[in-house]
Amino acid sequence: KEAEGLDIDRIGLIPTRANICGVVISRGSNSGTNAKGKDWSMATAHIWDGTALTEVVAFGRGRSESFDNLRVGDRIKLMAAEIGWREGTPQLRIDPRNTRMTVESEPPVDEAI
Fold first, then answer.
1. Distances in Å between the alpha carbon of 4 and those of 10, 12, 39, 72?
2. 3-state DSSP of 22-51
3. Sequence-ordered strand ranges (E) for 1-113
4. What is the pTM of this model?
5. What is the pLDDT of residue 44?
6. Would you say 40 and 59 are in contact if contact means Cβ atoms under 8 Å apart?
7. CA distance 68 to 53
8. How far is residue 58's CA from residue 94's CA, in Å, rounded to a whole number?
9. What angle do CA 62, 64, 30 make, to 5 degrees?
10. What is the DSSP letter of 11?
11. What's the DSSP call for residue 61?
């Protein structure tokens, strides 16, 4: 009887993957050793899609050469990235089996003035 008046949704219908297209506005990486002595690594890219900022993260084997070589200004498209949250901010996680990424690199800037 306590459940009367509650709306119940099927959690299985909530999307768990996302597609995004945007510009890389920052890059980061980190690595270390966990409490059990196992090495770990991660790389991040913050993507601006014109309306919002989204963090994209790749852990360990999910770190491809293409992802590690992203530069600020690159335009990327991600297909089937896993949806997650970190500290109230949307986060997309690269799944090496399912996520596909295409990159349109920004031409190098001539720094001579």
1. 17, 22, 50, 52
2. EEEEEEEEEEEECCCCCEEEEEEEEEECCC
3. 17-33, 39-48, 53-59, 75-86, 89-93, 100-104
4. 0.75
5. 95
6. yes
7. 19
8. 5
9. 70
10. G
11. G
Q: Any idea what the Cα angle at residue 84 is, between residues 95 and 30, rounded to 5°?
A: 65
Tell me which amino acid residue 62 is: G
Structure tokens at 91: 């986060």
Q: Where residue 61 falls among pLDDT bands split at 50, 70, 90?
A: confident
Residue 1, both tokens: 């009887």
Measured CA to CA, the distance from residue 89 to residue 53 in angstroms comes to: 9
Q: For residue 110, what is the DSSP state?
A: -
Three-class SS state of 77: strand
Sequence-separated (6 or more) residues with CB below 8 Å from residue 78: 18, 19, 20, 21, 47, 56, 92, 94, 99, 100, 101
Are 22 and 49 in contact by the 8 Å Cβ rule? The answer is yes
Task: State mean pLDDT over 49-66.
Answer: 91
Residues in the chain: 113
Q: Which two tokens stand for residue 57?
A: 């993260």
